[in-house]
Amino acid sequence: MTWFTPGEVPPADEMTGEWWDATREHRLTVQTCGCGHRQHPPRAVCTGCGRTDALTLVEASGAATVDTYTVVHRAPRPDVATPYVVARVRLAEGPVLLTRLMAEPAIGDAVTVGWVDLPDGRALPVFTPARPDEETP
Asked: 0.70 cut: is pTM over it?
């Protein structure tokens, strides 16, 4: 049983193709602008300054902190196992990701990225509790 089906994972497009390519290598990236602003998901415009000509992807550490979460007890489909945890995590680099946590956390817990491989070679970032030597400052 999985908690997603291939059709539920969005296809790569002009803005997200490079990000999805990095996931094939289990590399988490964030979009960075020449102004220094970092954002996720990748967009055509910097949400910090409005530029469109200075956006690049840079590798992220994978370290994050749990901002908030919910435990899902009622599955959206019969083939999805419950309970599972959906959380908003803040990367050490600043951007926020909506993700799946592989354990029930507390708000403020340090987490680190892991990966769930998809049938097409891409991967989804998921987060697990960080070991003490991996915790974010």
From this structure: yes
CB 125, CB 97: distance < 8 Å: yes
Within a domain: residue 76? yes
Cα separation values, 40 from 46, 106, 118, 126, Å: 10, 23, 20, 15
Which of 39-65 are b and which e, b meaning 16 or more Cβ less than 10 Å from the residue's Cβ? bbebeeebeeeeeeeebebeebebbbb
Structural domain including 77 reads 6-134
Cβ atoms of 81 and 106 closer than 8 Å: no
Report d(CA 132, CA 87) in Å as an integer. 20
Answer yes or no: are the C-beta atoms of 127 and 105 closer than 8 Å: no
> Over its length of 137 residues, how does the chain's per-residue pLDDT go in tens digits?
355 555 578 889 999 999 999 999 999 999 999 999 999 999 999 999 999 999 999 999 999 999 999 999 998 888 889 999 999 999 999 999 999 999 999 999 999 999 999 999 999 999 999 987 765 54
Q: Tally the domains of the chain.
A: 1
